[in-house]
């Protein structure tokens, strides 16, 4: 390794290993357990989500990544058999407190799903819907600007600018996913949860979304579930490795991919299981 490489690595490492302070912790999971009926899916997960960083959740299929992600904006509430124990905070506030307005929580902690799920409405309305119900636009010109900026940021505007009134469901799968990303961005959430957001996208669209994720972290905190080690390494600053419902290890992404402490992480990133 030459001096330049060492300097770059040292800079990256020192930025990422900065101790977590209350100021840079956006969300905190403490002893999070999730049950689906009698089956326990998460076993006491402790995880910090740092502000303006991308945290990647990795691990073999069924290890609980999506379950943990869904705890962060109470999407597990929508699953009848699901029960969550432990504590999860957003800016220090318990999001499972009975006084929490779940609709408001989900506008602060938005979500992009694995399968594109546009509303059966026009492309324009898909993006405008959230800002409208949250009163984010004063007039039509404001709304047009929000819709255009959101579609541009999601790398979709050029493909749809001449057919904004066509149904969102008429787009290709990859375009639909970018529409869902535009929809998430449009309400200016503080945290964006992404559950394998690129699995339906081609490599060019994937690259664009990864660039977008990097841009978005200036203003938002992002948590992404991914099966792609390359994607986790490219987009995240922190990586959390899950295994059989436990958090095996969490740390700076460079360290996790070059010198992990836990053998399960080592085995997973080298393709020995998963
Ligand atoms: N709605 C549900 N009802 C019952 N069990 C569920 C439900 N969702 C997930 N599980 C179970 O919880 C465990 C964790 O699943 P989860 O989807 O969180 O894992 P994952 O790591 O995201 O998997 P994948 O990478 O395959 O998406 C699995 O054993 C799964 O079968």
UniProtKB/TrEMBL annotation:
Residues 27-269 form the ABC transporter domain. PANTHER family: ABC TRANSPORTER I FAMILY MEMBER 17. SMART domains: AAA (SM00382). The keyword Transport applies. It comes from the Bacteria. This is Phosphate ABC transporter ATP-binding protein PstB. Belongs to the ABC transporter superfamily. InterPro entries: AAA+_ATPase, ABC_transporter-like_ATP-bd, ABC_transporter-like_CS, P-loop_NTPase, PstB-like. It holds the Pfam family ABC_tran. PROSITE patterns: ABC_TRANSPORTER_1, ABC_TRANSPORTER_2. The lineage of its organism: Bacteria, Pseudomonadati, Pseudomonadota, Alphaproteobacteria, Hyphomicrobiales. GO terms for molecular function: ATP binding. Keywords: ATP-binding, Nucleotide-binding, Phosphate transport, Transport. NCBIfam families: 3a0107s01c2.
């Amino acid at each position: 390794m030459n001096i330049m490489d060492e300097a770059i690595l040292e800079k990256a490492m020192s930025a990422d290993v900065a101790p977590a302070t209350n100021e840079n912790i956006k969300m905190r999971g403490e002893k999070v357990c999730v049950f689906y009926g009698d089956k326990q899916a998460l076993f006491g997960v402790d995880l910090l989500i740092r502000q303006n960083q991308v945290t990647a959740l990795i691990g073999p299929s069924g290890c609980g990544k999506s379950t943990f992600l869904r705890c962060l904006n109470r999407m597990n509430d929508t699953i009848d058999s699901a029960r969550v124990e432990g504590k999860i905070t957003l800016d220090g506030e318990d999001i499972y407190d009975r006084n929490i307005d779940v609709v408001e929580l989900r506008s602060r902690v938005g979500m992009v799903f694995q399968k594109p799920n546009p509303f059966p409405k026009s492309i324009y309305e898909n993006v405008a819907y959230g800002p409208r119900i949250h009163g984010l636009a004063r007039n039509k010109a404001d709304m047009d600007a929000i819709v255009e900026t959101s579609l541009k940021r999601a790398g979709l505007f050029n493909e749809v600018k001449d057919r904004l009134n066509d149904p969102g469901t008429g787009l290709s799968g990859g375009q639909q996913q970018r529409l869902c990303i535009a929809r998430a961005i449009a309400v200016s959430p503080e945290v964006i949860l992404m559950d394998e957001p690129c699995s339906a996208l081609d490599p060019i669209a994937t690259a664009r979304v990864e660039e977008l994720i990097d841009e978005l972290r200036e203003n938002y905190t992002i948590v992404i579930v991914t099966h792609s080690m390359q994607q986790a390494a490219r987009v995240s600053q922190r990586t959390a490795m899950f295994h059989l419902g436990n958090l095996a290890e969490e740390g700076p992404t460079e360290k996790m991919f070059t010198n992990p402490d836990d053998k399960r992480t080592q085995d997973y990133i080298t393709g020995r299981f998963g």
